[in-house]
Amino acid sequence: MKLEHNNLFNHQFAEIPGIRFYPYVGKNFNKQEKRIIVFAHNIYCKPEKYEAEQIRTKSRTHFADALEEYTYRRGWWTKSWRNFIKASLSINFNFTSNSNNEIISKIDDFVEKISYVNYINDIVKSKGSINVDVGQELINKSNNINKELLDILNITHCVCWGKDVFKYLTNLDIYEVIESYKLPRKGFEYAKLRNTEKGTIIHSLKIFHPSMPSFGVYNKETQKILEDFYKKE
Question: pLDDT tens-digit profile of 191-217?
């Protein structure tokens, strides 16, 4: 397995009250000056399958340990993550594990430097995949968990999949928005956050969920927005 979860921070994650899933942390993440986390929104399942899904995913690193599968396996459940990688790296075709070595090295290098997790830190019961009702109690719990994760990982850059995640992040009570603006592509937005206790800065980016056509996986404007965001100092 190439894209293994970095266990360096697990002992700190374990101390976070109520945490259900640890974020994936790339093996080279801790060597980076720019520390990027990608926040997807949630993992849902039908109410009648909830208990079985909790058992299936009982390990706190269940999803963190699956990033190689999510990166290289083609499937409906991997489409969003693969689209995000393609847009981030301006890869304009549907790569596989058998793509040329230059592409594979480029992908591995990117994934091994970043962190990734769903903002809502538990499985959500939902009858459908659209307009999943998370519930305020779980949102509040996830807010508290993610404040700890951002601090432990010393995050400098945060990519938010969708307006809800961006709203959760920018409304956290330990941050103030000191700069914000819409980006040239509709639905994309930037906000600069300052930790009011420590003075540290997080650059945050709102994008469409990568499963949506509006995201524009092969759109040059989408690719440029992501490229420029990763370069922010």
Answer: 999 999 999 999 999 999 999 999 999
Give the torsion sign (CA, 119, 60, 25, 30). positive
Is the pTM higher than 0.90? The answer reads yes
For CA atoms 109, 113, 117, 119, give the dihedral sign. Answer: negative
Q: Identity (one letter) of the amino acid at 100?
A: N
Q: Which two tokens stand for residue 125?
A: 């019961």
Dist. CA 229–CA 231, nearest whole Å? 5
Nearest C-alpha neighbor of 39 from the set 57, 24, 18: 24
First to last CA, the chain: 33
Amino acid, single-letter form, for residue 44: Y
Question: Among candidates 160, 161, 205, 209, which has minimal Cα distance to 179?
Answer: 205
Task: Mark 205-216 as b/e (b = at least 16 C-beta within 10 Å).
Answer: bbbbbbbeeebb
Q: Alpha-carbon dihedral of residues 53, 54, 59, 60, nearest 10 degrees?
A: 110
Q: Can you read off the two tokens belonging to residue 35?
A: 């520390």
Residues 168, 169, 175, 176, CA torsion sign? negative
Q: Are strands 201-207 and 189-195 parallel, antiparallel or unpaired?
A: antiparallel
Tens of pLDDT along 28-50? 999 999 999 999 998 888 889 98
pLDDT tens, residue by residue, 123-182? 998 776 667 788 999 999 999 999 999 999 999 999 999 999 999 999 999 999 999 999
Q: Supply the angle between the helices 79-89 and 220-230 in degrees, to the nearest 10.
A: 80
What is the tally of helices (H) and strands (E) in the chain? Answer: 8, 9
